[in-house]
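To fix ideas at the outset, we first show an illustrative case, written as a sequence plus integers encoding its fold:
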Amino acid sequence: MHSIRNLAVGLPVRNGCVLVSDGSDSSTGEVFHRAIGGGIEFGETAEEALRREFVEELGVSLAAVHMLGVLENIFTFEGMTGHEIVHVFAVDSDCLDGLPLDAELRVLDEGSPVGWRRIRALDRPLYPAGAMPMLLDWLAGVRD
């Protein structure tokens, strides 16, 4: 990858849990969680991309979205360097709120497992790096 990707990702939160996809890097053996979302297309706002990606990946529409911030993410995955500018959102979805917290879903277009994970007890990193502190700051502000 020799170009910077612009992404929009969302973090649905419910009852102390966040909905994330699970992934792994076969070149390093690392397992991780990833915020749900994907690329911003030309002529599309970050919010429009986020809403489209949730429909494409999970088949759900989003209600409220709240921009948490923008991250620059330079990383290595599968032995290759990647570079992303990531718009991170907290999101609400009536469709997702109806799912049991033990529900296991799959990303529709590529099959990665998706599930609710306890925010304070994540057993692996959440990517993009920096998204979790943004989410925790936002949650602290919401409760105040």
Helices lie at 46-58, 94-97, 131-143.
